[in-house]
DNA sequence: GAAAGTACTTTGTTTGTCAAAGTTAATGGA
DNA sequence: TCCATTAACTTTGACAAACAAAGTACTTTC
C-alpha cells in the first residue's frame, strides 16, 4: 500500500499559495490589488505569500505604470507552472486511489 | 473568476494528516507502529497529528492487546470520512478548473 | 536484571502565519 | 503648497504549528 505523495510540493501546502497559483496559472498575469481583493487578504499577507513563491522561482513580477499609476503584475514562471502541475497530479493520484 | 476552495478543510492542509486520512479511509483501521513505519515519522510527531485529527473527531482509537502486547489501532469516524470526501472534492474542482 | 518494545507526553527549538503599523514614492485635490 | 490617498511593499510582533529528542510507564524478552 503506497501513498503517492512524493510529488507533493511544500510551497503549495498553504491554502492561500494554492489559490494564488491557481489564479495565475489560469490567468497569465494578475495585478497585486486585484489579487488582494479576489482572495480577500491584507496587503502584507499577500505580499509575503507572493514573496515565498518568488523565492522558489515559481513567480515573477512585472512593474509598470498604467497611466501615471504604478502597477505590479505577477505571473507564474515555467518552473512554477511545471511544479504546480506535478503537485496537482500528486493530489489527483491521491483522489483516484480513494475512488477505487 | 471564482476559486472554488470553500470546502477546503484546514485539518487536512498538512501533508502528513492528508496521508494519514488517505491510509485510514482506504484501510478501515491501522495500528500506530505500522503507520509510523509507513509514513516514516517519529512517534511523537505521529501521535500529535493523530491527536489533532481526534480533536476534530475525524479519528478514533481502539486499544487492545495482541497476545500480551498493547496494540493501538486508529480508524476514521463517519464525520472524518465525510470531511475528507468534501476536501478531496474541493481539490478535484480546483484540478478540473485548471484543465479547462 | 538489562535491553527493548509500545504508545505516548513533555520540552524546546524552529518555522509559519497573520494583522497592524510603518515606509517610500507618486498623485489628486483643497 | 500641503494634505490625503493610492500602490506596493517591509517590518514588527504575536501567536500557532511542526518537529526531533528526551522522558515516562509499563511490559516482555533475552
Major beta sheet, strand line-up of chain A: 1-3-2
How helical, in percent, are the residues of chain A?
55-70%
Task: List low-confidence stretches of chain A.
Answer: none
Helices of chain A, by number, come to: 4
The CATH topology label of chain A is Arc Repressor Mutant, subunit A
How are the SSEs placed, and which strands pair?
Two copies of one chain form a homodimer.
Chain A: H1 15-27, E1 30-31, H2 32-39, H3 43-55, E2 59-66, E3 69-76, H4 78-99
Antiparallel strand pairs in A: 1-3, 2-3
Chain A binds a DNA duplex (30 and 30 nucleotides) through helix 2, helix 3 and strand 3.
Descriptive account of the structure:
The structure is a homodimer of 100-residue chains. Chain A has 100 residues and is an alpha+beta fold. The first copy, chain A, has one domain: Orthogonal Bundle (Arc Repressor Mutant, subunit A). Chain A is 56% helix and 18% strand. The first copy, chain A, has helices at residues 15-27, 32-39, 43-55, 78-99, and strands spanning 30-31, 59-66, 69-76. In chain A, β2 (59-66) and β3 form a beta hairpin. Chain A is elongated, with a radius of gyration of 15 Å. The A-B interface holds A 1, 3, 5, 8, 10, 13-15, 18-19, 22-23, 25-27, 38-39, 88, 91-92, 94-95, 97-98 and B 1, 3, 5, 8, 10, 13-15, 18-19, 22-23, 25-27, 38-39, 88, 91-92, 94-95, 97-98. Chain A binds a DNA duplex (30 and 30 nucleotides) through α2, α3 and β3.
Sum this structure up briefly.
The structure is a homodimer of 100-residue chains. Helix content of chain A is 56%, strand content 18%. The first copy, chain A, is α+β, with helices and mostly antiparallel strands and 100 residues long.
